[in-house]
Amino acid sequence: MDEGLPSDAVGNRVSCDGERGTVRFVGTVPPTAGLWLGVEWDNPERGKHDGTHEGVHYFTCRHPKGGSFVRPKKASFGVDYLTAIRGRYKKVQQILKEEITISSKTVEMVGFEAVSEKQKEEFLTTVALRMCEVSKPGVENEIRKITPHVVSLDLSANLLSQWEDVAAITEQMEPLRELVLSHNRLCVPTKPVALNQAFSCLKVLSLKKCTLTWPQLLECAPMWPQLEELYVSENDITKLESPSQQVLQSLTILDLSDNPLVEDSLLSISQLPRLENLNLSKTGLSTIWFNDAQPGFKTAMFPALKMLALNNNNISDWLVVSELEKLSSLVKLSCRNNPFLSRENNPETATQLLIARVGKLEVLNRSQITLEERRGAELDYCKMFGLEWLASGGHRDPQQNHPSTEFTTQHPRYLMLIQKYGAPEEGELKKPEPFALKNQLLSITFLCPEDSDRKPIVKKLPDSMIIQKVKGLLYRLLKIPGVQLKLSYASSKIYSLFTDNTCSEQVVHRCSQCVSVKLTPQMEGTEIDIDNDLKPLQFYSIEDGDKVLVRWS
Fold first, then answer.
1. Contact at 8 Å (CB) between 195 and 224?
2. Same domain, yes or no, for 104 and 219?
3. Other CB atoms within 10 Å distance of the CB of residue 484
4. Most Cβ neighbours (<10 Å): which of 50, 126, 153, 406?
5. d(Cα 295, Cα 292) in Å, to the nearest integer?
6. What is the dihedral of CA 197, 203, 209, 213, to 10 degrees?
7. Tens digits of per-residue pLDDT, 140-199?
């Protein structure tokens, strides 16, 4: 075997021209002479074949073109931890010790000597060796002398292939709490439980993009007896299995995002007793169902779950949101970019429905939900589905109020909400018109009262168009760049708004947060300022046939 080539090279990690891979074969490849390494690359586009050459199958790859043959001298098998730490932090110390010359005069760097002392290896509590080609620990027990106080260690994107090598590094860092091993390829150890002393204080572990499956993670889990946070996005996790009572029981955060999950297996992890934060974004989920609880009742599953991320999935039914209401501890939800949201013509309506359907939510899509927002959302929800409630057997008389099972399944909070606010009055219930673009277009006349030479402009615009875009259209039509537009409107039907004085809204639209609202006709032509560029036309209750006045300064 070539000089410098490890005797157990197969299975080891290598780097070549900036790409990392795993050695799958060592030997000759006729008709060429000499020794070759058969490498399966992490990047499947780096290779040329699947380990087959001229009809002979030398090794196996996950991808059809994920493999290559390279000469040993072109491949680096990496360096040990000690070499990497000295190389990385010696450079930092050299930079700190350099004198700075300004205008040919040497400037004394007061205080830099103290900073340099703190950068010495033995004082380090945080070590970052990302992409430093670390593949092994180095001289036995030397790490304990060099970096004994490390609390946070980043070894991501290196050449580590064995958990035993990782353990040989971490066991010499007794206070270690955070470990990042993302973008490595680690084989499951023969006896994981024998390595748990090396990770006895570990609380946070990141294994992103390590081609791991869930069964492999469960095999490794005995190594991490105190683990609280596990980040395993972008792996090969598909079908989940229930952890035993001996592993992962202390988990509070689990990130499974960017994995092709089999959704039927999600409930396999529902009994983790301390799990508070679960990220299921971009996992292909289309449904969630807690079959141990009827609509309106709480599930025993995920008992501690407070935060749930479901962004970029395939959820198309509002029933899934109703299922989330069964979670007893859920207060934070993120669910952007799901098909069920696009069913609502107005994004604000979709937000209101989410708030109303999940009663304990405090944060939605990273935005705090105020008491006023919740109140308004729940009142509008009652009115929006009031006709459906009545048609299903609902009644304003509690003695006769018996909506169908189908309705209560779709709207498990509805009965509670009408008990809270009272049933909506008949005049507040409107049957929504079928969606059609023509039903959403408003004919608006734009007038320039301070420029009598300009003719009125009539445009048909969608009621969801925000004021900022309306102004952009007017800039093009009026050809008046470099000015500040001010808009107001005169409605064909103007109303004044009376409330119980709890509402702070100053515009003429119906405020969903008011306890009582009365509309009374006023003089036609009263002007209302349009002063929020981020609101749609419908926010100001602009109707078909209204006139918008355009002024500028």
1. no
2. yes
3. 8
4. 153
5. 10
6. 60
7. 999 999 999 999 999 999 999 999 999 999 999 999 999 999 999 999 999 999 999 999
